[in-house]
Give the backbone structure.
Amino acid sequence: MKSFHRRLAVALIAAALHISTAVAQQATAPPPPAPEKPVNAGQIYSGMYSFLKEGEFVQLTVEDDGQVTGFISRFGEEQSDKGTFLDQFFQSAKLDGNALTFTTKIVHGVSFDFKGTVERGDGKNPGDEAYFVLKGTLTENLTDASKKATAHSSEEAFKMFPQEKDRQDKQDKK
């Protein structure tokens, strides 16, 4: 009987040591890895959007640090550039939440100002056409040869073009 009690005591001590070792290891175990960096909401706004006429577009790029770059690609309308594609890069741009503003550089006496928002559109899934829409006031600033300036404003909604599947998958993994 003594040997039974002795074996039981040894077994209990061994179990207690095993449990205390496991608890100690758990307490000193490295913390679980941090969750993946969340995607900056602005990054998903990056892409091509329609512009005023068929074939014209706005390219919007939101960098990791929140900096906004882009350009408008449009058809020239003056005698010297009629039908020619003109790229007008953003001179300044800002995205604050979903509020977007940009001003383009002047090309052939024309620049554009946009003040509006990036909103969810009719597209059902990310990558679908019109998943996001740029809604707001677009002002076209014109300066003629005699340096006379005029401005024309209109309310616009520019729909995001559909994105290729592999580009969308890359954004989803970020």
The beta strands are 47-50, 57-62, 68-75, 85-96, 99-104, 110-120, 132-143, 149-159. The longest strand covers residues 85-96. The CA atoms of residues 5 and 68 lie 76 Å apart. Confidence is low (pLDDT under 50) at residues 8-12, 32-38.
